[in-house]
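Field reference: sequence -> structure
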Amino acid sequence: MNYDCAIIGGGPAGLNAALVLGRARRKVIVLDNSQPRNAVTYASHGFITRDGVTPAEFRRIAYEEVLRYPSAAHHSGQVTDVRRTGNEFSIGTEDGLSFTARKLLIATGLREIMPDIPGLNEHYGRSLFNCPYCDGWELRDQPLIVLSDQPGVFHMAKILYNWSKDLIVATGGADVLTKEQRELLASRNIRIIEQPVTAFIGSEGKLQQVEFADGTRLGRTGGFIAPRLQPKAAFQTQLGYEVTETGGIATNEMGKSSVPGVYAAGDASYVMPSQLIYAAAQGSKAAMAINMELTEEEFAL
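Structure field:
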């Protein structure tokens, strides 16, 4: 099965790219393992006309719109192998199928590496989140915890202060705050706790208390975690594209990578900020660039 473009990843970047390419009458296939990172949450926010939509409903609507176009196709399965063969790409899946395409768009998103803390998984996506712009409104004016051992914890605390003035910053003892930052947080009555968090305690996903290594328990009804983020794309060895300092696929502003014919969009390229609307916009731009490249090649024949 030969396509103008194969898209690996069925998130907002990949699906929006498929929509644009389908409308451009390009033969496109979306290869999707149906494991979106945002599946743990009940609702996605910040996307105009879809604010509050569940991840499952977002995908349902997106596929319904994409597959209206006869040149667009979808295959549900994990991509296990991607190789360049001449002027085309050969893509293999875990179920033994293979596809070829003139262009390749990688939109596989991110993988979250969470701290190993009892109770975190039960509350994540319900009262513990990682993006203030996605879920800050829902936790407004509540007593919150900001948990991070990364330098960005100061920035996150400042951002969250707009939604809640009752904040605790927990760094787990990591030396990630400067003296000036500590003073600024203290001036806003934001308490810094160096003790590691040892448990999140609550019921049915609703956080009630946070326990620290010294046995202290503090009442909190929500919070924000900064997980380690890694791109899911694992095709650098096969394709040889350049990556950024954060591990994303290095691209130009239109999503073109260092390898001819290979594009990337969404979290697979820029890593942060991780937003539906950002990813969808990236997918749209990359699709236009892919269509233009295909057009130029056809006119050069």
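Note: The two ends are 23 Å apart (CA to CA).
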